[in-house]
Amino acid sequence: MSNTFTPQPWAPQRANPQQVLPEPPNHPFYYKWHPSNWMFHYFDLEVQNGKSSKIVKKGFFLPNIRLEYIVPGVNGIHQVSGELGNPGSRIGKLQQDGWIYLNPERFQYINVYPVRGGRYHSPIWESVRTVGNRVIKKFDREAFRKWSAKLVLDGTLSPIESHFWELQTITHQKTIDRLASSQHIPEVKIEMNQAYQIKDDMIECIQRFESNGIEIYRELF
Q1: Which end of the chain is flanked by fewer CB atoms within 10 Å, N or C?
Q2: String of b and e for 104-127 (b: at least 16 CB within 10 Å)?
């Protein structure tokens, strides 16, 4: 028998004792991002081709947003009660080091499920259900990546320094150089061609950004 659990909003509410997720409690968390941390990802975009449309792959640099749990006793986190801690000093230290703190109360990216002995905290992009008292989780990475792009588009994550993007093209060039001596091997040749393509697409993305700025991300919405 399959059950779908409805999460509570981030603001804590009284748990319904009849609906308890069979999962151990975990700690709250937050997302953070450093301006030097980027990833390159392809999206399938629908583009108009005359009266018809077609799907094309297009590459974008996305903020490599990271998750950090608020664990009492770790990273200077002071315990408040149970699994709850006060991350104020930790967040202050991160911000001093150039990190951007994405406040969960502002961005509402946490779902809270009642469990025995506490709460289970999960990103809103993770669906949670049970089958035969087993918890099945599935993370929608595409939706999460689009959220990260939206944070760039609305100016939450700024300014962008494309120097860090260019460093990634250099990394791919190093991969190409490393593979060049073995390109007579079919599998290596394929890998080398893929690295070439990614590098070219990265450069094309940088050029689009230099011409149009953050407006390039509007293509995703």
Answers
A1: N
A2: beeeebbbbbbbeeebbbbbbbee
> Rg (Cα) of the chain, in Å, rounded?
22
Q: Where are the domains of the chain?
A: 2-146, 162-220
- The tens digit of pLDDT for each residue in 98-124 reads 999 999 999 999 999 999 988 999 999
Which two structure tokens, joined as six digits, stand for 68?
């950090």
The pLDDT tens digits for 15-33 are 455 578 999 999 999 999 9
Q: Based on the number of CB atoms within 10 Å of its own CB, is 25 exposed (0-12), middle (13-18) or buried (19 or more)? A: middle
Instruction: Give the Cα separation of 215 and 212 in Å (integer).
Output: 6
Which of 85, 86, 89, 109 lies closest to 97 in space, CA to CA? 89
Residue 206 is given by DSSP the state: H
- The terminus-to-terminus CA distance of the chain in angstroms comes to 37
Spatial distance between the Cα atoms of 145 and 162, rounded to a whole number of angstroms:
19
